[in-house]
Amino acid sequence: MDENNPLTAMAAFHINQQFQKQRLGNALNSARPEATDQAEAQLQSACREMESLFLSYLLKEMRATIDKSGFISGGRAEEIFTSLLDVEISNKMADAGGIGLSSILFKQLGADHRNEDDPESP
Question: CA 64, CA 59: separation in Å to the nearest integer?
Answer without folding.
Answer: 9
